[in-house]
């Protein structure tokens, strides 16, 4: 089933309303859909490099809006369903401690999930569930998704088809290394 979804998503890159399909996929990927918008972005940008920035912007805006839906799912479904269950099991206190730890790392959690292959939807829902400050979530989501989508657009716009394999196979690893180096740099500045 996942392969069919992937193939369908890829086939939509050639559709005459591909930009709207990208908006839809970017929106739902941030909370429930398993296929990332990059699958659509890559062939769309290769077919029309002059639209690279527009395509990246659509992915960014709708991904962040979809992230807000994921945040809402975490915020409202947890309070109405999850919390009473945890309280009845005597697990409310450990969850409160988890929420505090998650929110202490909130910027890094959202940044990491926003630029790496880690499912962004997990962090959007957890951010709402743990009560991360909404403004922190929004700003970090814009930063993270912007880095990811605009870098893909830049690479494809500049290098075209030859860079496609690198993006599809190795860019996720490069993003992970970038986040680790960035986090390590901040850690070194703070503690060294």
The succession of helices and strands, N to C, reads HHHHHHHHH
Mean pLDDT: 79
Mind telling me the C-alpha Rg? 18 Å
- Unreliable runs, pLDDT <50, ≥5 residues? none
- The figure for the number of domains is 1
Tell the overall outline: globular
How far apart lie the N and C ends? Answer: 50 Å
The tally of helices reads 9
Helix content: over 70%
Proportion of beta-strand residues: under 5%
Number of strands: 0
Query: The biggest beta sheet, please?
Result: none
Alpha-beta content class: mainly alpha
Transmembrane segments: 20-40, 52-78, 134-159, 171-189
Domain VTT: 35-155
Protein name: DedA family protein
Pfam families: VTT_dom (PF09335)
Describe this structure in words.
The chain has helices at 2-11, 18-29, 38-47, 52-88, 92-104, 106-115, 120-129, 134-159, 164-191. With 192 residues, the protein is mostly helical. The protein has one domain. The model has no long low-confidence stretch (mean pLDDT 79). It holds the Pfam family VTT_dom. Residues 35-155 form the VTT domain.
């Amino acid at each position: 089933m996942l392969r069919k979804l992937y193939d369908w998503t890829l086939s939509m890159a050639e559709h005459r309303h591909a930009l709207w399909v990208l908006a839809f996929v970017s929106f739902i990927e941030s909370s429930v859909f398993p296929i990332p918008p990059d699958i659509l972005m890559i062939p769309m940008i290769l077919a029309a490099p002059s639209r690279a920035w527009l395509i990246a912007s659509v992915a960014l805006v709708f991904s962040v809006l979809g992230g807000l839906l994921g945040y809402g799912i975490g915020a409202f479904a947890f309070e109405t369903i999850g919390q009473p269950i945890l309280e009845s099991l005597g697990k409310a206190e450990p969850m409160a401690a988890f929420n505090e730890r998650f929110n202490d790392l909130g910027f890094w959690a959202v940044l990491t999930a926003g630029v790496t292959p880690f499912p962004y939807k997990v962090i959007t829902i957890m951010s709402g569930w743990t009560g991360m400050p909404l403004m922190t979530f929004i700003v970090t989501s814009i930063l993270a998704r912007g880095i990811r989508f605009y870098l893909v657009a830049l690479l494809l716009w500049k290098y075209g088809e030859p860079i496609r394999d690198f993006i599809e196979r190795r860019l996720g690893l490069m993003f992970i290394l970038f986040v680790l180096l960035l986090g390590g740099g901040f850690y070194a500045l703070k503690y060294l």
